[in-house]
Hints:
This protein is about 25% helix and about 25% strand. The longest helix is centred in the first third of the chain and has 37 residues, at about 25-60. The protein has about 240 residues and is an alpha+beta fold.
Amino acid sequence: MLTEKIALPTAGRAASPGHRLPPRLLRGALRLRRVGTVGLVLYALALGVGLGLASANWATRGRYPFGGVALNAWTAWPKIGSRDADPYVRAIHARTGEIPLALGEGLLLTALTDDAGRRLDPSCRYRVAGATPPARAWTLSVERRGHAKEVAKQGADQAVKHAAPAGAMPPPRTGFTSTEVLRDRDGRFSVIVSPTVQPGNWLPMPEGEGSIRLVLRLYDTPVAASTGVLEREGVPSITREDCL
């Protein structure tokens, strides 16, 4: 007669297939897991806010990122004062407080390089020569990033004083207008932008730190409505002559 044998558990071995942690250790592990998840979420939020603020600061530092029309070394900005201006342009104007030229008032052209494509160097001498597009009036100036705020501060400090001290040097010229620039017989002009004094139409390089740019503003010009009529030969040339 066959009998069925039943295996009994051996001494010292648990009958359950696995070991369970005490409730106190389980609660501690869950608490650590929650703290780790919250920390990762807070880190991601802080990183996103930091990158967002840094990118917004970079995009609104005063240089228009989009909407330019290249004309040799110059870049025309026909829509910065129109209703179609992009949000970045609006943010730049809100930050700097600059009032742009409206579409029917004029046109802004800027240059960060010379005609050879080299970045404008404050230690070099440049010749801006030729003619401008048709306009009732125009201004040509040289600017350095952050220099406009310094000039405004110096002007405010001088306005507080009742009178300038005797023998004080006048503030350096920052630009020329179409009514005061010296011209040749053909009506063309030549302006020297240099850190040292030059004869004729001379624009001194602004002091301080930051990139250099030339700014040409055309007032009451027919090309403001459509930059397609502008020709590359119709804007002044920018030639680097020598460097210190």
